[in-house]
Amino acid sequence: MEVPNVKDFQWKRLAPLPSRRVYCSLLETGGQVYAIGGCDDNGIPMDCFEVYSPEADQWTALPPLPTARAGVAVTALGKRIMVIGGVGTNQLPLKVVEMYNIDEGKWKKRSVLREAAMGISVTAKDYRVYAAGGMGLDLRPHNHLQHYDMLKDMWVSLAPMPTPRYAATSFLRGSKIYVLGGRQSKYAVNAFEVFDIETRSWTKFPNIPCKRAFSSFVTLDDRLYSLGGLRQGRLYRQPKFLRTMDVFDMEQGGWLKMERSFFLRKRRADFVAGALSGRVIVAGGLALSTAPVPRTGSAHSPQEEWSRQSSVGDFPGCQLLSAASGLRPRGSEGPPSASKPYPSQETMRSPRDSASLQLEAS
């Protein structure tokens, strides 16, 4: 595959979200982008539900969520969108599960979760949804793994995760679910564990070399990239934003030793990252000054140094969607006050911008 030159990438401004919000969940399915829930300027969960058409560059309002909430887990099952858990208007985790039928334009209540939870990580395979971890009403991280059978409308408990956590990153590769990082209370977790759907068993992989919060993970070809983040402070150790890049070889089953010359050019956390046209792209985020990091960079292999792209503008704490046509960061959060060296997941932040951008390879 020929990798395009960095000069071939350009940012394009798209239609903004209809309203300002944070903790909105995004989903791309069927060539459309769906924005689900979120919190308003007062930190109140919303019931908004909209769809974006790339062809028309336009957002359209859809029937609102039956249950207003923020920070939901969301996935697609064919032409159905499943919305799981999150935080309700009482600021507590929910066990509510709702499903939207794209063809019918209607919501339906589905079987609830085993326990109320936020910060659940989900993957889907063969009309089954796998929900891992989460944080419950008692603020303790869960080790639950359960799958939802759409045909039977039923949740089934599977072997628990070896490491309880919430806000983990998970992805599906073949018949295996890879679960990385996450948090326990306010502290980062560097566990890397894999669940085999066929044998229904867990395998512990080598831990992420550098324990940090608010990092980003990207898969490209047979490699997994763990990028940037925040090394949290404890006792006399100060918090530190990182430019670390760790690379896991999926075929060899181990982390590669990386020279510092291949690290990110800019220390950052709470940024977005994705893969586009054979390159790993990072954009925005927060740096030591708690000001947004506008720069964008890319690399196409662990042996290549990072190249600087055109600026993305001020986009701290936004979300990124990968699609065949490009990468789309949407929405944004204002940087936290100077008294907080890093953004806290437990503290609602005011929406800063509802803008949308797309990075394209010409």
Automatic annotation (TrEMBL):
Keywords from UniProt, A to Z, are:
Kelch repeat, Repeat
Q: Pfam families, alphabetically? A: Kelch_1, Kelch_KLHDC2_KLHL20_DRC7
Does tRNA processing appear among the keywords? no
UniProt region (Disordered), positions on chain: 292-362
Residue stretches of biased makeup (Polar residues): 342-362
**What domain of life does the UniProt record list for this protein's source?**
Eukaryota
Q: Kindly provide the name given to this protein in its UniProt entry.
A: Kelch domain-containing protein 8a
